Amino acid sequence: MDFNAFELQKLIKDCLNEDIGTGDLTTNSIVPGNAVSTGYITVKEYGVLAGMPVAEEVFRCLDPAVQFKARAGDGDIVERGRVLAEISGNARAILTGERLALNFLQRLSGIATKTAQFVKLIDGKKPHIIDTRKTTPGLRMLEKYAVRVGGGRNHRFGLYDGVLIKDNHIKIAGSITKAVKAVRLACPHTAKIEVEVENMAQLREALEAKVDIIMLDNMSPEMMREAVTLVAGRALVEASGGITEENIRAVAAAGVDLISVGALTHSAKSLDISLDLLEIKAEC
Predict the structure, then answer these.
(1) 38 forms bridges with which residues in the sheet?
(2) How many CB atoms lie within 10 A of CB 26?
(3) Closest-CA residue to 96 (of 132, 48, 63)
(4) What are the helix (H) ranges across 164-214?
């Protein structure tokens, strides 16, 4: 996985602490501490798999001796009934980590699957499908990773790694020109500047300000086509707002460079995935 391993471990430990608290009352009451078992993670519907290394890390955080044998990898297209992984080791650790591991797998696979559906609709070509900051608090690192697994790309990660001047910023600054000027005075020259526009007058003002990216907010495909012609390659053009599976082909045909889709993360349906244990035995 292409993100910080330390951050992943910290996130998982925080999530485990939220779930376990002072201990797993049910498992610790029923399952002997020396019991071992083997379990299988199985997918129950078609989708694109994402989050396997995260699920494995959940069990390793609980017990490094637990064996996690992956039978599928992130990015794989999986069909109903496919076994994704075999897990063996301490039964308490497996049962205690089951829900968190599945939550990660289901959520991330759902995002990867939805992203892949959007990418497929435009044949995986330009424009690029990108995500937004409409993510689950605390899970942005993983959810944006899942978008990449599904064939999409990432917009800015947070407020700190890219400038996006939106309608409220423009209102406070007084104009696009003034907002861009303020940003250029305050931000590093390496930071790209994107401006959200709602009409052709704002688009012309953004072009005059020489911004790097122009976001077309809730425009019709016809207006987008006019905007792309006016921009004429002087900035990247991003389509945003109201993008659905029904209209994305028309948006792509308008000639934009990027299409941002908040639904990739805020409306993705979790993939149905389960874990079933075999007989539990006492370790000798």
Answers:
(1) 88
(2) 10
(3) 63
(4) 167-173, 176-186, 200-208
- pTM beyond 0.90: the answer is yes
| Catalytic member of 133, 134, 153, 178 | 134
Neighbours of 3 (CB within 10 A): 11
Does the annotation mark 217 as catalytic? yes
Which amino acid would we find at residue 60?
R
112, 150 contact by CB (below 8 A): yes
| Residues 78-95: tens digit of each pLDDT | 999 999 999 999 999 999
> Among the options 10, 80, 166, 171, which is catalytic?
166
Q: Which domains does the chain have, with CATH numbers?
A: 5-118+269-282 (3.90.1170.20), 122-266 (3.20.20.70)
Taking the CA atoms of 184, 187, 193 and 194 in sequence, report the sign of the dihedral they define: negative
pLDDT digits (tens, 9 = 90+) for 47-66: 999 999 999 999 999 999 99
**Do the beta carbons of residue 74 and residue 53 sit within 8 Å?**
yes
Q: Which residues pair with 197 in a beta bridge?
A: 216
